[in-house]
Amino acid sequence: MNEKNAKATEYGIKKVGERYYPVIVDREAGGHYEINNPMTGGVLSYNNPEAAEKYIERAKGKEGRPPEGGTKSSS
Questions:
Q1: Closest C-alpha among 44, 18, 17 to residue 32
Q2: Chain centroid to CA 70: how far?
Q3: Which sign, positive or negative, has the C-alpha torsion 27, 61, 12, 15?
Q4: For the segment 12-44, what is each residue's pLDDT rounded down to a tens digit?
Q5: CB contact at 8 A, 14 and 23
Q6: CA–centroid distance for 43 within its chain
Q7: Are 52 and 16 a contacting pair, CB within 8 Å?
Q8: Which residues, listed in sequence order, are joined to residue 31 by a DSSP beta bridge?
Q9: d(CA 42, CA 20)
Q10: To the nearest 5 percent, what fractions of the chain are helix, strand and coil?
Q11: Strand 31-35 vs strand 19-26: parallel, antiparallel, or unpaired?
């Protein structure tokens, strides 16, 4: 793995019931971070996978900015 790939943020989508949660994957820790929704203070989730995928694409476009925060989850 080269230096550039090692620093890239990896995203994924976790499905729980009827909801889709965009997450930041942490392979070293063996878990992921759920992303906080700044509008509600809860965890960011969508009711369709396309919306979650669209969020991930926007987040990848903003890679240079520091994250706004998240909640660590190991599941």
A1: 44
A2: 9
A3: positive
A4: 999 999 999 999 999 888 899 999 998 999 999
A5: yes
A6: 10
A7: no
A8: 26
A9: 14
A10: 25, 35, 40
A11: antiparallel
From the list 25, 63, 19, 18, the residue with the least C-alpha distance to 37 is 19
User: Look-up: residue for tokens 């070293």?
Assistant: 28
Residue 68 is predicted with a pLDDT of: 57
Q: Which residue has the higher pLDDT, 53 or 29?
A: 53
Closest CA relative to residue 9, chosen from 71, 72, 73, 65: 65
What angle (nearest 5°) sits at the alpha carbon of residue 62, between those of residues 58 and 65? 145
CA distance 3 to 21: 28
Burial category of 9 from C-beta neighbours within 10 Å (exposed 0-12, middle 13-18, buried 19 and up): middle
Nearest alpha-carbon partner for 8 in 22, 21, 20, 25: 25
